[in-house]
Amino acid sequence: MHKRLISALLFSVIGLGALLVPTQAERNQVLYRDQVAVLMYHHIHDADTSTSTITSQLFRDQLQFLLSKGYHFISLQEFKQYMDGATVPDNAVLVTFDDGYESVYKNAYPILRELRIPAVNFMITDSLADPKSTYIPSMSAEELARMSRETNFMEVQCHTDGSHRKLPNGEAALVGRDTLDGRSETDAEYRTRISADANACANKLEPLQDLPVDTVAYPYGIINEEGADLFRRAGFNYGFTIIPQMATREADPMRIPRINAGSPWITPERLHTMLKRRTVSRPDAFAAVDLADAASRLGGTVVDDGSSILVRLGDRSLTGNVGSKLFTSGEGNVQLQEPIRREQSVLRINLPDLQKLLGREITYNRRSGYIYWREQPLIRQAQSETPSGP
Description:
The protein is α/β, with parallel strands linked by helices. It is 32% helix and 21% strand. The chain folds into two domains: 29-285, Glycoside hydrolase/deacetylase (TIM Barrel); 289-365, Copper Amine Oxidase, Chain A, domain 1.
């Protein structure tokens, strides 16, 4: 009996190990590179229902499922760096919210904070004057500022000031001609209206955070060439639409696509499938970099005696050989994907291997050659000062 019990326990442990292996493999799986899935949400509420409202539990389940599948969440600042030539982690995702509903602060923010997931709120700023007067209550200036103050990964950008509306003729206010005193506004009046709206939105948000306000999500995802140019002239460098595609750096920065994730029928599994189906084929995103130069920029050194290599970074020291994939340290072995090679007296290493060697995520801008540590999501204040959330 005792032997049978031991055998049963042994098989149970083996079976559990077999179940855990695929999960770890999934977390390490590269689903896509050098592109970003920008997710769009609106209302996170446990009682309200609509095609753009999901419960806090579904929101949490989506994020946790994506984390379990190896997705990496990035901030808007990292996305901007990517558009300017920098790398992003494999399976990169950016979370965005439109309209600035208070439900984001009360229900979504506690989850994002707990999971250390960055996000950007696109705010309709004319609601800041009286946030509770809207049909769905909006966030206040104090709530927006608090999220930015408490973390380094929550920020607010523009969803226009007073242009989230349809005109009498049914056109979106950003692209159509409004009616003034019974007549259609002139082209000059249209340009003045849109420019004033863009400036008003930025002016209201700039005091709420230290980051620049230079990004807009167009209401209804609708914009035309003239409207985009007016926002650009007002100091906006990025504009988001609702075109359901992956974002790549070849996209027009004033027409960046986003994928809707905020409808109640989008289960975690369905969202994962949607993202996989939208990935695009990309050339190799990781050019080999100069190992000695990269280590120096990150505060380390490389000693190369012609065959063996010593890499030092802080209290971390690793040794290996040119042409080898194996490096050793006091903490154990590091197995690289590709061997370090010498090209015209320069040691070359690909970016994923450099991250593995140094033990931290880094960002590399291929245009400037600048390399730096990837900023990690941080909490600046105590948990008790934030809404309790679901």
